[in-house]
Amino acid sequence: MDLNLKKIGQSFSVLIVMSVVLGGIYPLGIYIASQTFKRPVLLGQDFTDPKFFWGRLISVEEKKNRIERYNTFQSKHNLPNIFSESEFPLDFISNSASGLDPHISLQSAKIQIDRVSRETGRYRALLEDYIALSTEERGFGFLGQVRVNVVKLNLLIHG
Predict the structure, then answer these.
(1) What does the pLDDT profile of the chain (159 residues) look like in tens digits?
(2) Among 28, 43, 102, 110, which one is most buried in terms of CB atoms within 10 A?
């Protein structure tokens, strides 16, 4: 009986410590970091302006709007609609688990070059260089895919 009370006391102590750390100190650290760094590149942003590259969707409801905006832009400027809904790169029309992923695939970045070039007046080659500068390799050389950080890319475009 005495041993069980000791274990209950230890468990309760761990619960209190973890509650303070995860419920108070960790969120405070995140808040301080968000105030310290003026340009967060680790969190996805909701870019909808045609002058910028669009990242992953923040919400599922945006999927139809994204496809319609893309196809409308292509039609308006007499460019071919090269994708049907089922052919778009998956990350272009889906959201990440957290909704905060700042990365898209290289293919998703490349299909947006014509739109961004036309809207910003920048040469296609320059935008391809920006994509190369914003491209991140696989984690540890083998985890995941090569990806483009959209926030970094759009910061380069914005100047």
Answers:
(1) 567 878 888 888 888 888 887 777 777 776 666 665 554 555 666 677 878 888 776 655 565 666 677 667 667 666 656 555 556 677 766 666 666 678 888 988 998 898 899 899 999 999 999 999 999 888 788 888 898 988 889 889 987
(2) 102
DSSP state of 92: G
For 36, the 3-state DSSP assignment is helix
pTM for this model (two decimals): 0.60
Tokens of 15: 């619960």
Task: Give the contacts of 23 (CB within 8 A, at least 6 positions apart).
Answer: none
Structure tokens at 32: 């301080």
Please tell me the distance from the alpha carbon of residue 61 to that of residue 73, in angstroms, as a whole number: 20
Instruction: Using only the alpha carbons of the chain, give its radius of gyration.
Output: 22
Please give the backbone phi and psi of residue 120, each rounded to the nearest 5 degrees, phi first: -100, -15
CA contacts within 13 A on the Cβ side of 33: 10
Lookup: tokens for 105: 């695939």
Is there a contact between 62 and 96 (Cβ–Cβ < 8 Å)? no
Helices (DSSP H) in 79-149: which residue ranges? 106-110, 113-120, 124-134
